[in-house]
Design goal:
about 5% strand, about 150 residues, single chain, mainly alpha, 6 helices, two-stranded antiparallel ribbon
Length: about 150
């Protein structure tokens, strides 16, 4: 990883801006797979591998928590502040603790989507602090007839 000076420059502990974008895209793909990869026909509801794997008692819930913890660790590596990492860990703990409850926990896993929440929190933070270019442009569109 090259170490250059200036905006978006890499340091030994913080990746460059383009590396942050690539990491965030990878985390968004993982969150999609874990939380909303499959459409349940008839009820038109999306679930992911977290809900499917969570059907296996305890082992599935632990596996889901480990993957969700990876997302939080990547956020920490990208320079997320402690309060944001703590909030993301709270989402993981809530998802894991309630996911252990048979049947009701599986339904909760299908609805709560901790990974997507955490990646959205990270993206919002990186866009707000200038660590990432905004995915959406804020403002009002004005039509110019010419």
């Amino acid at each position: 990883m090259p170490f250059t000076r200036g905006p978006g420059a890499a340091t030994p502990f913080r990746p460059r801006a383009d590396d942050r974008e690539a990491t965030l895209l990878r985390l968004e793909a993982l969150a999609h797979l874990m939380d909303s990869a499959f459409l349940i026909p008839g009820i038109n509801r999306r679930v992911g591998m977290d809900a499917v794997v969570g059907l296996v008692p305890i082992i599935g819930d632990v596996a889901g928590m480990l993957i969700a913890s990876y997302v939080v660790n990547e956020a920490r590596r990208l320079g997320a502040p402690r309060w944001l990492v703590a909030r993301m860990m709270a989402n993981v703990v809530i998802d894991g603790a309630l996911g252990v409850v048979p049947l009701a926990g599986d339904l909760f896993d299908a609805v709560f989507k901790a990974n997507r929440r955490n990646v959205a929190l990270l993206r919002r933070h990186l866009e707000k602090t200038g660590g990432l270019r905004p995915g959406e442009i804020d403002g009002t569109a004005v039509r110019i007839d010419g």
